[in-house]
Amino acid sequence: MSAWHIVAIFGAGLAAGTINTVVGSGTLITFPTLLAFGYAPVTANVSNTIGLVPGSVSGAVGYRRELAGQRERVLAVGTASLLGGTLGSILLLVLPASAFKAIVPFFIAIALLLIVLQKQINRVVGHHRRVQGEGVGPGALAGAFCSGIYGGYFGAAQGILMLSVLGLSIDDTLQRLNAVKVITTGLTNLVAGIVFVIAAPHVAWDVAGLIASGSIIGGVLGARFGRNLPPNALRAIIIVVGIVAIVRLV
């Protein structure tokens, strides 16, 4: 591996860790980078998933203030994400890549639509239909499970999907929900990474290590930057990243 490869992959990991913490979609930076350097798609996906786990940990530490008082919520939604991530990672190993990746852009588009129309939807359904306090309703759990399946299989823009699910099912501030999103997407990557280490024959550990190193720094930067964004600005970033994700995947 040349010095240029090392710098580029580390930089991609740093950028991915930052954007995963703020919004979610960092895989759309690291995955194409690895493909550009000649790594096979499955090897790139597996190594990328493993490498991004430490960035979620540093991002969660950075969001610890927003996570205060959300233990019950994190446990419930996190468990659903773990179960979904396990299923999704198994599907990656047993199904052809085209079977799921073909509908990824549609998932992202739906998530963006939900975020754009969140205020209007809230006015229609009323706050009484969203879970208040620290509880978690069936909608959030089902959404976390489905998002986990998607994240375990590919993972690009999983954070956008998860944040839209939380925003529509739980009555809380966007920043606190974003902190929960960092935990749940990190757990999905973690369980998928474990499955890949056990069952996947090809893990590029040097690549995973470089992405991990960059994503740790990126997670810290993302938490520091993301928590200072007003809700409208955060939604705008989510929309822009989501549109870019669709363009990159189509």
Give a brief rundown of this model.
The chain is built from 13 helices and no strands. It has helices at 3-22, 27-36, 41-62, 64-67, 71-94, 97-101, 104-116, 118-125, 138-153, 158-169, 174-199, 205-226, 231-249.
Task: Please tell me about this protein's structure.
- This protein is an all-alpha fold and 250 residues long.
- It has one domain.
- Helix content is 80%, strand content 0%.
- The chain has helices at residues 3-22, 27-36, 41-62, 64-67, 71-94, 97-101, 104-116, 118-125, 138-153, 158-169, 174-199, 205-226, 231-249.
- The model has no long low-confidence stretch (mean pLDDT 84).
Helix share bin = over 70%
Give the tally of β-strands.
0
Can you tell me the overall shape? globular
Rounded to the nearest angstrom, the distance between the terminal CA atoms is 30 Å
Main β-sheet, in a few words?
none
Give me the secondary-structure category. Answer: mainly alpha
Percent of residues in beta strands? under 5%
Counting copies of identical and different chains, the oligomeric state is single chain
List the secondary-structure elements in sequence, H or E.
HHHHHHHHHHHHH
Count of DSSP-assigned helices: 13
Residue windows where pLDDT falls under 50 for at least 5 positions? none
